[in-house]
Amino acid sequence: MKIKKNKPSSAPTDKTALTTDCSDLSTTKITQKKKISKKRNWACVVYPESLPADWLDILQKTGLQIVISPLHNKDKNPDGTVKKPHYHIILIYSGPTSFSVVQTLTQKLNAPAPIPLEAVRGYYRYLTHKDNPEKVQYDEKEIKTLNGFSILDFIEMSRSEVLNIKKELIFLIMTENFIEYADFINHLLEKGTTEFLDVAMSNTYFFDKYLSSRRHRTSSLK
To answer: Same structural domain for residues 49 and 149?
Structure first.
């Protein structure tokens, strides 16, 4: 007579439960993999109400190249309610850096977990919602940089982008009635963006000729 062996009570018999367990395990592995992966460029969000009083000093003393967005205090949730005011921060390390190392810094700011960046330029443009016209547009001049960060180190403008900036600079010259190249550059140093200043300084001959033409025309009308 054969004795029928009972299955151990601990063996899973519910297929749904088994699938769920595997799914959870897979998710855990993905999360762990994300946390141990190393990236050079990272980002985080911080909230003014949670920041320590010396948060800018904390960031400055890291020696990292850092970018801080304008205060996002007008963003809205899908239901129309206003989001909690916050800053976006970009952190540039000298080489690939682990999640745990970056989190050590962001925890000092009482910030949520940092995220790795694949493209600094894209996130930099998001600091003002430049490519999201449906969102509140923030002033690029309110972006703060620390320890020598320059967006020019992370971009190579296309011909069409340079042309569009040239058009905006020409409009600025007409609006402000500049006739001297020095006054034009001084204005950009004080109030312009890094990209605008780069285009102006990289096209000295063009803008100098344009300004001198305006100057001569102004003189002839007197």
So the answer is: yes
